[in-house]
Amino acid sequence: MSTEKPWTGRFTEPTDAFVEAFTASVEFDQRMYKHDIAGSRAHARMLAHVAVLTSDERDVILGGLDEIETEIDKGDFQWSISLEDVHMNIEKRLTDKIGDAGKKLHTGRSRNDQVATDVRLYLRDEIDTIAAELKRLQCNIIDLAEREFDTIMPGFTHLQTAQPITFGHHMLAWNEMLQRDGERLLDCRKRANSLPLGSAALAGTTYPIDREFTAKELGFERICQNSLDAVSDRDFVIEFTSFASLLMMHMSRFSEELVLWTSSQFDFIDLGDSFCTGSSIMPQKKNPDVPELVRGKTGRVYGHLISLLTLMKAQPLAYNKDNQEDKEPLFDTIDTIKGSLKVYADMMAQVDVKKESMREAAFRGFSTATDLADYLVRNGVAFRDAHEVVGKAVRLGVESKRDLSEMTLEELQGFSDAIKADVFDVLTLEGSVAARNHLGGTAPEQVKQAIKRARELL
Ligand code: ARG
């Protein structure tokens, strides 16, 4: 294949070999080849529609593009660094294959609006894949919440046992976060789904183009309304990466809990063997590598967000070559979150919950102390006085290594005569969670209803 650059007319010297490699993007932007070809098909059809191309020329171009797509699919395509990027590699191959008609494809178009279109098309497809994977993860979390809707565990603040909660309620907290992430993703899709083609290099084009036609061909909901903005801004990439950063932040928090919970100190859950690894030296080890890696990968996604913001921060209008640097952070963000979501969705389907151990931990941590205070308030004690009374009872519990529910009625009455025999109803773990029976509360009854709502939203 000939690899002569399209701008040789203006130049007297060839590009320096190192500069050629330094400025090329084909090694990474070739992953958008399907979207580049889709954009070219739509552009060729539009040009024929407005009679800039004949229908014969259009058909020859479309035939050539089909063949090129097959060559690339099969791995038979020769990519050339001297042709810089995916766009020029494909265009050059088209001309080599079909001759003069191929030279007309770039009429009324520039690589500037072409690349902006490719990135939007590529991202739109990836968003759809990611949205489906996120839903699969949510489904598996909700299923787990349903299986464990009334399983008791300690709830924490400051990582200290605070109050008993249900495991189902805890899982649904993660689902809430992921639900918002999904909403942000779809919102980002709306703004990404806008057509730059027609903006040409920066100012538009002198040909009688029909942008509505191209938009319809490519399934774009909107048309970018200003040619300078369309070829230059990458805010939609930044928006996607900020969605991804929030998602990774949530998954990193979730990972932290899974890592803690699988430790023998907590012993709340078991992750399937296929999601863990052993140690080459310590035979007893089963390491939670998957959540640890997801937690670790969060950093690179945040890094990409900062890279992209910095990439755009001082660029004058319109297109600048700086923009070529948008792709690697975007692609790596996509790969990282797709991988993390996939492994998480698979892993959450196999979590084994150790009910006894969680119950024991909730029991040990005086988690019903607030319930005792609330009981005293109901019996006429001011909340601050009740807080003090319960504090003293907890101190006795610590000293004598007993839970509040293990004390005698006489002992408890020694702290306040507002305490009656029915106090033991509120000191049980089940009584404590069942009492928080309002929208957003941890009662098993509420968990069931929340699961229903969560499934409807999905
Ligand atoms: N490879 C380039 C990019 O990714 C394509 C656009 C090049 N445009 C230009 N005027 N040099 O941004």
Written description of the protein model:
The chain is mainly alpha-helical and 458 residues long. The chain has three domains: 8-107, Fumarase C, Chain B, domain 1, CATH 1.10.275; 112-207 and 218-359, Fumarase C, Chain A, domain 2 (Up-down Bundle); 361-457, Ribonucleotide Reductase Protein R1, domain 1 (Orthogonal Bundle), CATH 1.10.40.30. The chain has 20 helices and six strands. It has helices spanning 17-23, 26-29, 33-49, 55-74, 86-98, 100-103, 111-147, 167-192, 211-218, 227-232, 235-262, 289-312, 327-348, 355-364, 369-378, 383-400, 409-413, 423-427, 429-435, 444-457; strands spanning 152-157, 160-166, 194-195, 222-223, 269-270, 352-353. Strands 1-2 form a two-stranded antiparallel ribbon. Strand 3, helix 9 (211-218) and strand 4 (222-223) form a beta-alpha-beta unit. Helix 3 runs antiparallel to helix 4 (55-74). The model has no long low-confidence stretch (mean pLDDT 96). The chain binds arginine. The site of arginine (ARG) has 10 residues, from helix 7.
Features:
mainly alpha, 458 residues, two-stranded antiparallel ribbon, two-stranded parallel sheet, Ribonucleotide Reductase Protein R1, domain 1, Fumarase C, Chain A, domain 2, binds arginine, Fumarase C, Chain B, domain 1
